[in-house]
Design goal:
The protein has 179 residues and is mostly helical. Helix content is 80%, strand content 0%. Helix 2 packs antiparallel against helix 3, helix 3 runs antiparallel to helix 4 and helix 4 packs antiparallel against helix 5. It is elongated and about 70 Å long. It starts with a helix and ends in a 7-residue tail after the last helix. The relative contact order is 0.06.
């Protein structure tokens, strides 16, 4: 593969800036979207790992995401970078997208929990409520999420839903010792 050869040459002569510039130009002329996406991802890796330029890495990955909006590899890389540069708003957006696209329930649960934490950090109670509901959909027996949901419903004045949840819990209680 020509690109791998170019990378080997860059490594032997520490020519990463030049390689990044060449890759940037190639992304402009490649017509096959899949190849362009791959190249943009590789460019992001070079900017992040070889050139310590997270801003440029993010730009490359966002360009890849514009081509393939559900590319989990790109979303995971963006999540890692946004966390590293402490950009919480885009981190929240990317984490939410990953949670929606999660393939396994455990992964989805972990991501929705992270969404809830990020929303809490930003003071977004509605976002926390959405994330907590998602966690409970995935793990109905999660007591911590259930308690968090009750607290959020109370804090947000959603008394009808709170009453419904309390009634459901009362029905599920088998013995008075559990109340």
């Amino acid at each position: 593969d020509v690109l791998r050869g170019m990378e080997r040459m860059a490594e032997s002569g520490d020519l990463w800036e030049q390689l990044a510039s060449e890759f940037e130009q190639l992304t402009q002329v490649l017509e096959v979207e899949g190849r362009r996406t791959e190249l943009l991802v590789r460019l992001g890796e070079i900017y992040e790992g070889r050139l310590s330029r997270p801003d440029r890495a993010i730009d490359s990955l966002l360009a890849a995401l514009a081509i393939d909006t559900e590319n989990r590899t790109v979303l995971k890389a963006l999540r890692r970078l946004y966390r590293a540069v402490e950009q919480n708003e885009p981190l929240l957006d990317v984490t939410r997208k990953l949670a929606v696209l999660a393939r396994r329930p455990l992964e989805a649960r972990e991501l929705w929990t992270a969404v809830g934490t990020l929303c809490e950090d930003q003071g977004d109670h509605e976002g926390m409520l959405e994330a907590t509901r998602k966690v409970l959909e995935l793990a109905p027996s999660d007591e911590a999420a259930s308690e968090r949901l009750m607290d959020l419903l109370l804090d947000l004045g959603k008394f009808d839903e709170l009453a419904e949840r309390l009634q459901e819990q009362a029905k599920e209680t088998v013995s008075p010792e559990k109340t």
